[in-house]
Structures are given as structure tokens and as C-alpha cells.
Amino acid sequence: MLDIQFIRDNPELVKEKSVQKTYPVDVDRLLALDGERKSKLTQVEELRRRRNEQAAELKAGRPTDGQIATGRQLKEELSERETELARIEAEYYELLKKVPNMPADDVPVGASEDENVVAKTVGQKPQFDFEPKSHWELGEARGFIDKQRATKVAGTRFAYLKGDLVQLHFALINFAMSVLTHEDTLAKIAADAGLQVSTKPFSMVMPPLMIKTDLYDAMDRLEPRDDRYKIEGEELWLQGSAEHVLGSMHADEIIPASELPIRYAGYATSFRKEAGTYGKDMEGIIRLHQFEKLEMESLTTPEDSLNEHLFHIAIQEYLMQQLGLPYQVIMKCTADIGKPDARGVDIEVWFPAQNKYRETHTADHMTDYQARRLKTRLRREDGSLELVHTNDATALAQRPMIAIMENYQTADGTIAIPAVLQPFMGGKTHI
Fold first, then answer.
1. Mapping DSSP to helix (H, G, I), strand (E, B) and coil, where does residue 411 land?
2. What is the CA radius of gyration of the chain?
3. Do domains 4-98 and 113-425 have the same CATH topology?
4. Is residue 173 within 8 Å of 422, Cβ to Cβ?
5. Beta-carbon neighbour count of residue 361 at 10 Å?
6. Torsions phi, psi of 227, nearest 5?
7. In what order do the strands lie in the sheet with 377-379?
8. CB 99 within 8 A of CB 1
């Protein structure tokens, strides 16, 4: 949630940037409600003060009929004002929640993902002396992917992964964990990227796969609800990505500044309905209702926030470079970064069979937008309190595995294993 004082001070800027992010909001109505809310709150507080004073007087002696009548009148008037205040606050907070985070100055202005900007391209696309197959052709031929039986058991957009492909998946996760938990490797990544950041390793987490409605909403990741799975009869949802249950871990907490950054690497099975994607990516396992992902989440001081975001991106690039996958870094435009983001960057990896780059990673810079509603704060050495800043980013998910299948395929249909993964595959060089 955006700071109301910022909106008061910059109403025209908030209007402009909200439209750029495709989340237009009635700022004038919000500020009018803000004024009404402050006025009604003053009235309520005054009535409470007068009622408390009268209550003290009544306790001091035998009440008169006039005092009783005055007390009744104060009670009725207070109840009326509190009802009015509750109505105003309900509309006020609903509008305030609709205001998106303000995009950083370097975010490209654009009306759709088509206006995202390629910041750089890294690596050489593989050259084949045969027609490269898609990952689903490779997977089905070798018995690695079984969507037919998964459809029978669970419906469309589910898959059984089997055999060596499962081992490859966990090799990727174990490789990423070895990077995220190794301080020397993180120090090298930071130095190579020219970043002055803590080299504190990430703590591994296996989080709950469900999240309460109020915390999902406070993370500003509940919408669009049509893309989420709700547990019938309960205020619980299946999380759509590990950061939803990592970023909310410290809700209503005050963290000593000396303990920051807090860095988590959370592994979770995640769930999305993929609403609005009917007919897209029906072949293979690029777009499923259920997928596995290792996610980075960081809580930092405000002054370290941007560099932490850049550090997440540097880690993502390091992982792709170590895997030998050609990729490009995408600066997402205002319409594509998402409501709580101040800045968003994607990594897209080359998929030979599709002859295009596909998104495999995203890095989200939220500043204090999530922390304000989560009430996650830090305490400085002088005792002052501030909101923490949050960042999240993909470490590795299933799509890089798919990219390995396509980029490392051979003429006989086997798949070569990148050298960095072979120790996690029991020494296998091909599957």
C-alpha cells in the first residue's frame, strides 16, 4: 500500500503513474475521503474524551437525571459518529489499496508487455545439424513426461514427470541451493556485478503451501482471484508462488536493523489456474496448474533495497551462465511490472524448438509497498521505527529445465547434462 502522505503531496503524479501502470484510481475521491476521515476521527475522539470525563464524574458521586440524560446523548452521538467513520474508512481503505506502487524512474513507460525493453543479450544460441525437437517431443519419446495419464487423474494442465527428468529437476534445485547458501560464491557474484551488498547467505525454507486471505491480500498477490485456488469453506488459499508465504512470514513484527538483510530461499509446489490463457502453451509443461519453484525473498533496510534487487538479478544471471543457457535481460515496462512493484526485470532463455526467448525468471522490487499493510518494521539503533523493504525473485523453476532439454538435445534424442549439474546427477553426462 502506498503512503497516504505521499499521495497527499503528489496527487497529480500518482494519477499519472497509476494510469501508466494500468491501475487508474480516483485519487480526488480518495483525498476527499481522507479529509472526511480525519474530520470524523477528530469528532469521535472528542466525544470519547467527553464520555470518559463524564463517566469519571458519575463514579465520583450519585448521578443526577441530567447527567444520565447527557451520558445517554453522548453514547448515541458517539455510536452515530463511529458508524459514519467506519463507513468512510471502509471506502477510504478500499480506494487506498487500489493505488499501485509508483514505478522507479528507470522503468520504461509502456502500454503492454510488447513495450518491454531488452537490456542485454548473453550467450550464443546453439547450432544444430538436425531439426531440434521441442521439450515435449523429447520428454514423451523418452517417457519423461506423461500428460495423458495426468489428464485422466487431475485434468488438463497437469503432468507426470518421470525418470531422469525428475533427477534433473532436483539437480537444478540442489545446484541453486548450493549457490544461495555459499557466502564465497555470493561475494563473487556481488563483486562481479559491482554491487556493495551483504554477502549473507540465504536461509533455506520449506514454507506452508497455503496462506490466509488477509495476508494474501496484504501481500497484494491475491488478485486476480480468478487465477487462485481457494480452499472451500475456509479463508485459505493455495499459494501461487513461494514469495507469497515468505514475504508474509514477518507480518506484525519489528526486526532489529542489525539483523537485516533477512534472506530466504523457499522451495514450494505452487498453484495457479492460468485463467485467461485458454489455448496457450497446451503442449508440454511450460504452463501448468501446478509447478515447482525455488524463490528468493529478501527483507532489507530502505537504503539497501535497490541494490538487493540488483543482487537478485545478478544471482539469476550467474545461474544461467553456469548452466550455459543463452538468455536476455528484460526491463519490464510500467504496464507489465505489476501493481506492488516499483521495478520488475525478467530473464528470458532461448528455446530452440520455438525459435524464441521465453521468460524463466522474474525479479520484483517492492520497496515498502507490501510492508506497510503487513506492518513489518525495522528498529534503528536510536529506537526509531521504519518499514522494511521487500524484494523477491525466481532462483530456479521448471522452465530452465525445459530450456536445458531443448538447448542440450542431441541427434539421437538424448539430453546432455550441463557440467555444473553432473555432480548432482551422480556423474551422469546424458539422460
1. coil
2. 26
3. no
4. no
5. 27
6. -100, 5
7. 254-256, 377-379, 385-387
8. yes
> Which pLDDT tens digit goes with each residue over 313-333?
999 999 999 999 999 999 999
Fold observed for domain 4-98: Helix Hairpins (1.10.287)
Give the pTM: 0.94
At 411, list the grid cell. 541427434
Give CATH superfamily name and number for 113-425. Answer: Bira Bifunctional Protein; Domain 2 (3.30.930.10)
Distance CA 185, CA 282 (A): 38
Question: Which ranges of the chain have pLDDT less than 50?
Answer: none
Are 1 and 373 a contacting pair, CB within 8 Å? yes
Identify which of 105, 25, 120, 4 has the alpha carbon closest to the alpha carbon of residue 343: 105
Burial of 287 (0-12, 13-18, 19+ CB in 10 A): middle
Closest among 409, 309, 330, 283 to 118, alpha carbons compared: 330
Question: CA angle, 361 as apex, 355 and 362 as ends, to 5°?
Answer: 125
Rounded Cα gap, residues 237 and 234, in angstroms: 8
Per residue in 329-371, pLDDT tens?
Answer: 999 999 999 999 999 999 999 999 999 999 999 999 999 999 9
The grid coordinates listed for 259 are 539483523
Which runs of E-coded beta strand occur in 179-271?
A: 203-205, 210-212, 229-230, 236-238, 254-256, 262-271
Instruction: State the residue for C-alpha cell 500518482.
Output: 14
Q: Where are the domains of the chain?
A: 4-98, 113-425
User: In whole angstroms, what is the distance from residue 26 CA to residue 13 CA?
Assistant: 13
Following DSSP, what letter does each residue of 59-102 receive, concatenated? Answer: HHSPPPHHHHHHHHHHHHHHHHHHHHHHHHHHHHHHHHHHSPPP
List strand residue ranges (DSSP E) for 191-242, in order: 203-205, 210-212, 229-230, 236-238
Which letter, b or e, does each residue of 92-113 get, where b requires 16 or more Cβ atoms within 10 Å of its Cβ?
A: beebbbbbbbbbbeebbebeee
